[in-house]
Amino acid sequence: QVQLVESGGGLVQPGGSLTLSCAASGSIFELYSMGWWRQAPGKQRELVASFTSFTSADNTNYTDSVKGRFTISRDNAKNMVYLQMNSLKPEDTAVYYCYAHLRRTVLPAYEDHWGQGTQVTVSS
User: Fold this and answer.
1) CB of 5 within 8 A of CB of 69?
2) How far apart are CA 94 and CA 10, in angstroms?
3) How many CB atoms lie within 10 A of CB 41?
4) CA 56 to the chain's CA centroid
């Protein structure tokens, strides 16, 4: 079994900051990529930020609306990924989901796994 556990969401005023954390645990042979998606009410889920390869340095991807404000980072040894969110705007309000693209055995069978989601609300 694989688990992704997120933490760090909450209520913050516009212009404020939050840091989200996600820990992947369980039977993981290779963690290929990790990142964050979000889904606002009435909208489709969108990719926020990701490491497109968890083992390569500086291989990150951001959606345009968060560039310069959000920073994704990782701890390879702990299978963790973080999302530092600065200068938050009301339009950043959403449920944020951690995801991981991984394989559980030496076989080339990759899977997508998702966390339960954490609510981020930006409001005065």
Assistant:
1) no
2) 10
3) 7
4) 17
- DSSP, collapsed to helix, strand or coil, labels residue 124 as coil
Q: Which residues pair with 95 in a beta bridge?
A: 39, 119
Among residues 120, 88, 112, 115, the alpha carbon closest in space to that of 14 is found at 88
Tokens describing residue 67: 């560039």
> Average pLDDT of the chain?
93
pLDDT tens, residue by residue, 52-90: 776 666 688 999 999 999 999 999 889 999 999 999 999
Q: Is the pLDDT of residue 111 over 90?
A: yes
Report the residue count for the chain.
124
How far apart CA 89 and CA 98 sit, in angstroms, is 20
Query: What is the distance of C-alpha 15 from the center of its chain?
Result: 20
